[in-house]
Amino acid sequence: MKITDNSFIFKQLGKNDKFPYELLLLADPSKKMIDTYIRHSEVFTAVYQEETIGVIALFPLEKNTAEIKNIAVKPEFQQQGIGTFLIENTFLAAKNNGMKSIMIGTANSSIGQLLLYQKLGFEMTEIKRNFFLDHYAETIFENGIQAKHMVVLERSLK
């Protein structure tokens, strides 16, 4: 669905709100893995015409750093700037909460995500070898490439 205006809003979910698992599972195919971080994360959504079309989960780490553990946009709304909207608003929320940097990890096979994150100022800092082989029971393929390693990127909020 094509969005013809910028009338979507950025909304923080409360701890008692229902998490949009149907979206979270688009980015992380393991509900078990999602459950390890979601209740300890700040969860924000992009809402368009009262429909949740995107989600982002920000997990606090040590030393004024947080990690984006999950970001997903409904397929019919992708490639319209919603992911950028979620990330940029998360930068503002994190900075307002005293965070100095944001980390994000994605698979070696996530070509579009790696492009987007670097365009938004993230820089590669680490590769966690065999992360997806060690932490996921099912084999994951994207873009015809097996997801094996996690590429970790970081961006300063200064």
How would you sum up this structure, described in words?
The protein is of the alpha+beta class. It contains five helices and nine strands, in the order E-H-H-E-E-E-H-E-H-E-H-E-E-E. It has helices at residues 21-27, 31-37, 82-96, 111-119, 131-135, and strands at residues 8-12, 42-48, 51-60, 65-73, 101-107, 123-128, 141-142, 145-146, 150-156. The strands form two sheets. Strands 1-2-3-4-5-9-6 form a seven-stranded mixed sheet, with helices on both faces. A hairpin with a 2-residue loop joins strand 7 and strand 8 (145-146). It is globular.
Give the key terms.
single chain; 158 residues; alpha+beta; seven-stranded mixed beta sheet; two-stranded antiparallel sheet; 5 helices; 27% helix; globular; transferase; Ribosomal protein S18 acetylase RimI-like enzyme; GNAT_dom; NAT_camello-type
Count of strand segments: 9
In angstroms, what separates the terminal alpha carbons? 35 Å
Mean of the pLDDT scores? 93
Multimeric organization: single chain
Give the number of helices.
5
Helix content: 25-40%
Structural class computed from helices and strand pairing = alpha+beta
The backbone outline, from C-alpha atoms, is globular
Please report which band the strand proportion falls in: under 5%, 5-15%, 15-25%, 25-35%, 35-45% or over 45%: 25-35%
What does the main sheet amount to? 7 strands, mixed
Specify Rg, calculated over alpha carbons.
15 Å
Taking strands numbered 1, 2, ... along the chain, how are they ordered across the largest sheet? 1-2-3-4-5-9-6
Helix-strand string = EHHEEEHEHEHEEE
Unreliable parts: none
InterPro entries: Acyl_CoA_acyltransferase, GNAT_dom, NAT_camello-type
Keywords: Transferase
Organism: Chryseobacterium camelliae
Pfam families: Acetyltransf_7 (PF13508)
